[in-house]
Amino acid sequence: MTLQETINTDLKTALKAKDETVLGTLRLIKAEIQYELTKTGASELTDTAVMQILKSNFKRRKDTAVEYDKANRPDLSVKEIQEAEVILRYIPKEVSEEEISKAVNEAIVELNANGAQDMGKVMGKVMAKFKGQNIDGSKVSSLAKQALSAS
Question: Which GO terms describe its molecular function (predicted)?
Answer without folding.
Answer: carbon-nitrogen ligase activity, with glutamine as amido-N-donor
